[in-house]
Amino acid sequence: MELRELQAFVAVVEEGGFSAAARRLHVSQPALSQTVAGLERELRVALLVRSSTGVRPTEVGDVLLGEARAVIARHGQAVRAMAAFLDADGGALRVGVPLELPAAVLAPALARLAEASPATRVLVRHLSTAEQTGALRAGELEVGLLRERPAVAGFDSLLVSRERLGVLLASDRAANLLGPQGIALEALSGFEWLAFPRSDSPAWFDELTAILRSHGHTLGAAAPHGQRLIAEVKLAAVSAGRAFALAPPDWSQPVSDGVTWAPLVGHPLVRRTWAVWAADSRRRDVGRLVAGLDPAQAH
Predict the structure, then answer these.
(1) CA-CA distance, 209 to 178, in Å (whole number)?
(2) How much is the average pLDDT of 243-266?
(3) Residue 234: partners with Cβ closer than 8 Å, 6 or more residues away
(4) What torsion do the CA atoms of 165, 171, 176, 179 make, to the nearest 10 degrees?
């Protein structure tokens, strides 16, 4: 048995089906099905009862589930224990960051870390919140900067940023809607919201959509899994005049001609960023980086 096979089996059982587990592991459903089927062939037992409503473990599957969780947890502990020794002689500190991370969040922390631990190399990966959560679980990241606080046990977190989101809108449309305090969110109900995929950050997506609906918005088709809502896509779609996008006031991208950024009246949408790391991490450079992520930025 390989670790990836056990991780696949546990994910399928915990998610209650192959589709949700595939999204959690960021693999295709057919590939995941083949992995679990291969594990069953290898062990010569049926591990899952499959039905139209999902899957559940067999009696043998229940036994393997407990053992697999223990193996995965022990593997993560071993990875973290070895990582603790890298800090003394230099090593890689792997950090996950989302799109549109405010420059004021990470840059000062990296500068402080470089001064305090010059032997540490920082490897930054652009990942969604869901991808970072999975990578943290698997021991593939030491620190993640997430749009939502993880609901799973075993992690510590620190709120490092609060951004009052405004709106990007075609300039001629914005001119008609802009008041002394900005644009009212309900005034945008006739425009399409450029949404990111829910699978990227489910809790943050649900918070956003609940607020939008409460202001009269009817949401369109969901963005497909894996689609990245990058700046170029936002600006191109907004400039056509039928859609709006959300962005903070200090958005790092230059706003193109024909597009206007404006605050939202009452600041109804606040995007939070959390620093997340393993609660049992003993790496000194993790502590130094987190200490440098000044919660005062969370304004």
Answers:
(1) 22
(2) 87
(3) 168, 194, 245, 247
(4) 40
Note the pLDDT of residue 230: 72
Q: CA-to-CA distance for 193 and 26, rounded, in angstroms? A: 25
Q: Identity (one letter) of the amino acid at 238?
A: V
β-strands 91-97, 120-126: how paired? Answer: parallel
How many angstroms separate the CA atoms of 250 and 124, rounded?
Answer: 21
In terms of phi and psi (left: phi > 0; alpha: psi -120 to 50; beta: otherwise), the region of 216 is left
Query: How far apart, in whole angstroms, are the C-alpha atoms of residue 242 and residue 258?
Result: 13
In the prediction, which pLDDT does 37 show? 92
The answer to whether residues 248 and 271 touch, using CB atoms and an 8 Å cutoff, is yes
Average pLDDT estimate for 275-298: 83
pLDDT given at position 88: 47
Mean pLDDT over 211-231 rounds to 83
Q: Which residues 6+ apart lie within 8 Å of 59 measured at CB?
A: none
